[in-house]
Structure formats: structure tokens, C-alpha cells
Amino acid sequence: MVKRTSFEHDACPIARSLNAIGDWWSMLIIREAWFGVSRFGEFQKKLGLAKNILTVRLRALVDEGILTTAPASDGSAYLDYLLTPKGRGVFPILVALRQWSEEFDARPEEIATILVDKQTGRPVRKLELHSEDGRLLTPADTALRPRPAAKRVTA
């Protein structure tokens, strides 16, 4: 397997995030976990992924704290791979990627599903970025600033 460049210690939070979840197999594993897939064999069947690659990706997602392992819920000798709170935090990212594809894909008619609110059955509204006071923000409305230094606690 090709060695990837690590962005673990990069100052950019986007680079650091991509270090943890930035390859497509990891994102698709997380997607399947959202749909309730929890077993190695189920992931392999749904994704058509080679066992060695799936093993490496699952291990990395566990090491990153995105998935955790637990004894199988049916009492068998298998392990279940379950989303952690950190893994559940990927949900808005998956929705944003989905909505981006729905808007800009060259063949949107080939997208087989829509994301709906279970309670109403209606499509989920497009994600938007809002300021603290509720204004809709565009890239032109945002800027990057240095993070304030951490406050020192003195005894």
C-alpha cells in the first residue's frame, strides 16, 4: 500500500480532518455504518472492498476514534464496528458531500435516492452556513484569523 503524507500535525483543520477521514473508502465505511452496517463481512459485501484494504481502513477508523469495536450484539464471536460520537459527527460532512453532488453532478438523474426527514418524509433542506446572528454567509463573508493564545493558569 502506498504511504500517505500525514497531516496529523498540520496547522490547518481541513488538512487534519482529511488525515483522519479523507480517503473515499473511509467515508464510504462511515456511510455504511450510518445505515446500520456493523460487521466486517457486511462492509465487504456492501462496498466490494478487498479484505486487506478494509482491514486497514477499519483499523485506522478505530485508531482515530471514529469507530469502536464491541462484542457482536447477537452473542457470536464476531466484532461489531460502531460509530462513536466522533464518528457520528461526520454526518453533516456526508450530507454536505451528498448535496454538493446532487447540485453539481453531471448526471443527477442517476442518483438513486434522496435524503428525507423520517418524521415528515420531506427532503432535507440544503445545508447553509449562518453567522452567530443568523445571517446567511458566503465565502466572501468569512475570513481566517489567528487563534487567540490559550489562557495561562497560574497558581
Shape field: globular
Instruction: Give me the Rg, rounded.
Output: 19 Å
Secondary structure class reads mainly alpha
Largest sheet: 2 strands, antiparallel
- The main sheet orders its strands as 1-2
Number of strands: 2
Please, what is the CATH homologous superfamily of the largest domain? Winged helix-like DNA-binding domain superfamily/Winged helix DNA-binding domain
Annotation field: number of helices: 6
Helix amount, in percent?
Answer: 25-40%
Domain count, please report it. Answer: 2
Mean pLDDT, all residues: 90
Low-pLDDT stretches: none
Proper CATH architecture of the largest domain: Orthogonal Bundle
CATH class of the largest domain: Mainly Alpha
Order of helices and strands: HHHHEEHH
What percentage of the residues does DSSP assign to strands (E)?
5-15%
Quote the CATH topology of the largest domain: Arc Repressor Mutant, subunit A
> What is the terminal-to-terminal distance?
50 Å
Task: Explain what this protein looks like in three dimensions.
The longest helix is centred in the middle third of the chain and has 14 residues, at 91-104. The protein folds into two domains: 13-84, Arc Repressor Mutant, subunit A (Orthogonal Bundle); 90-126, no CATH class. It is 38% helix and 6% strand. The chain is built from six helices and two strands. With 155 residues, the chain is mostly helical. It is globular and about 50 Å long. The relative contact order is 0.09.
